[in-house]
Amino acid sequence: MINQKYKDRLSNKSVIRELAGYARKRGKDIGYENVFDYSLGNPSVDTPTDYNSAVIDMYKTMDSMSLHGYSPSLGNTHAREVIAASLKKRFGIDYETKHIFPTTGAAGAIAHAVRAVTKPGDTVLGFAPFFPEYRPYINDSGAKLEVVPPDLPDFQINFKELEKMMNGNVTAVLINSPNNPSGAVYSQATLERLAAFLNTCQKKYGHDIFIISDEPYREIVFDGKKCPYPSHYYDNTLSCYSFSKSLSLPGERIGYIAVNPRATDADILVDIFAQISRGIGHNCPSSTAQLGVTAVIDETSDLSVYETNMNLLYDALTEIGFEVKRPQGTFYIFPKALEDDAVAFCKKALKYDLIMVPADSFGAPGYVRLAYCIDTEKVRRSIPALKKFAHEVYGK
Amino acid sequence: MINQKYKDRLSNKSVIRELAGYARKRGKDIGYENVFDYSLGNPSVDTPTDYNSAVIDMYKTMDSMSLHGYSPSLGNTHAREVIAASLKKRFGIDYETKHIFPTTGAAGAIAHAVRAVTKPGDTVLGFAPFFPEYRPYINDSGAKLEVVPPDLPDFQINFKELEKMMNGNVTAVLINSPNNPSGAVYSQATLERLAAFLNTCQKKYGHDIFIISDEPYREIVFDGKKCPYPSHYYDNTLSCYSFSKSLSLPGERIGYIAVNPRATDADILVDIFAQISRGIGHNCPSSTAQLGVTAVIDETSDLSVYETNMNLLYDALTEIGFEVKRPQGTFYIFPKALEDDAVAFCKKALKYDLIMVPADSFGAPGYVRLAYCIDTEKVRRSIPALKKFAHEVYGK
């Protein structure tokens, strides 16, 4: 019998995907270059040529079994060594091979992390605004996601609400900095305060509370700054990384979990992830992708376009009169809509071929997300449309 | 808090992996060429050069987004079209793109299939002997695997026991032909009888009962024969395929589910699989692998070595006096041990540098599995060791 839980979900489709579908359809009518499609977080810059060259070289020179054979259930050992060494060098944390578990992107990482450190019925606290896919990631594990309301207007952590919502049933908190959709980066002060609070709670409730840290945008930070690394501030941290954005290869499904060496059971957590894999059909990312990223471990795509686009959009939105926080990273910007109903706002924008995503499902009703991982030239061309829309519909 | 369920599993490690570990270690001492390692089902023949050439070509010519960008959540459309067309042509079943869901190998396929057609608490019936990983595949979904005892000595289906174990709580049966570990291929008569029985049960209990058909060895069949295709005989069939064995690329994690177009809800099952992906962190196999297999969709590696090896081993084992059914496919042979305790038998064999796997965890105590996906030359050299072992320890 078809499982009713999943069948029910079919009638509840992702707003983002529906808008992206509309954009593609409209593109067929008027040319996709004329659709200002800010709906999807699909990286727009090329994968580094070094990555492609490394894979071509592997395919030309490696023997079949070494390249295409089964990975060990903990992941390719060489890939784990290279990732551990890179993180150790970069963040000064004593990662060893045993702390690294390759995953199918950040989605796979979170799927493993949440199952490892919670049990069905536990509560995981997340923070608005948040990536809506966190709901199935967490809820399908048997734990339950509860969302702390946003800290307005800065999109750091709303500690007042966090303190209210914390209780003995919480065994993990899920953070995401740089943040999708707000573009905010958690400050050192925010992470220190979160760590202090969680340490107090661990003592009070007598059990571990893990931070599951979703970090796919770690490399996309503006103004020459660096993103404070959550694992520096709190021992029980599982860093969930994806190369999707930094190397522009989301289709390859490659990322990892890095277990803080000072976390509880740090030496066996990766073994536990491998046990979890057996039940969810994961069994490692592709061997090509595991080996490919090791060849370019400290490289990124040319990510500078995202900062260029951000500045253009931020200046335009501010000039028009939007209430908007300047993003510190990612390729998202998160203005307040020009009316209370962000869904209505986004629908009206479609007439101007502007595709924006209402943030109701992100836990921040009234806001909209623009994903500016598109050509700068298109961003420039979208600005007159934005101005026209705001002027004609809202008198701005 | 670390999830105790997975922590407990760490003390219950796979016998196969332990033996493979022993073989590697022994190989360091005496040279791996002198260890007759029949433990692991890792394909020994090369991936077709056409696959590697196709990938190299893709990496040289495709634009970054088309090659490395996100796949749609239902999988790469071109890959789904090519797979559907190939299956339609080969099996004469009206598969369309909407019936194909690319997965991370057969493990990913089964993970999705079982969640789609069962709900937690349901029973899935499997048939001994069976691949031990079926336990976590099924049990971690919330359904429960119950195992029908083997049909001796032919390893078809024990219908007497199946009829006893069937009840209204059963919503799926999991079959695997050609079979790991027995090498048996379900005959047309077996599949017809199974279909008739399940059709009767569907009427009796008033709900669907799906066949989840695990088919990674479909292409490895001996004596010029073909493997009867389960979906021909029963409408509610989900064919779970992997290219791991046919193209020798288990590390790339690429396979698919093919939904029988006549199955209940055939038009929405793939949409349901995509919903399941959201919760288990799957989000498609790698884009490279999806595109790579489409380039060689009707090819296989040179699989003839497995038949050569099978004949050598079958003749030797028979000559020595083992009770053994001649395999009809796969790269496994499944003799009865020369004493009741197959674990003791396999331990004694280690002294002769023969690594075989006791089949207790496969649901067939007293039997052993030899995975002969190794060089033919090594198979030849192992025969004197087999003879010496059987003679010195068991007087054969």
Automatic annotation (TrEMBL), chains A, B:
InterPro entries: Aminotransferase_I/II_large, NHTrfase_class1_PyrdxlP-BS, PyrdxlP-dep_Trfase, PyrdxlP-dep_Trfase_major, PyrdxlP-dep_Trfase_small. Its EC number is 2.6.1.-. Residues 36-383 form the Aminotransferase class I/classII large domain. GO terms for molecular function: pyridoxal phosphate binding; transaminase activity. It holds the Pfam family Aminotran_1_2. Its cofactor is pyridoxal 5'-phosphate. Keywords: Aminotransferase, Transferase. Gene3D superfamilies: Aspartate Aminotransferase, domain 1, Type I PLP-dependent aspartate aminotransferase-like (Major domain). SUPFAM superfamilies: PLP-dependent transferases (SSF53383). NCBIfam families: PRK06836.1 (NF005305). Belongs to the class-I pyridoxal-phosphate-dependent aminotransferase family. This is Aminotransferase.
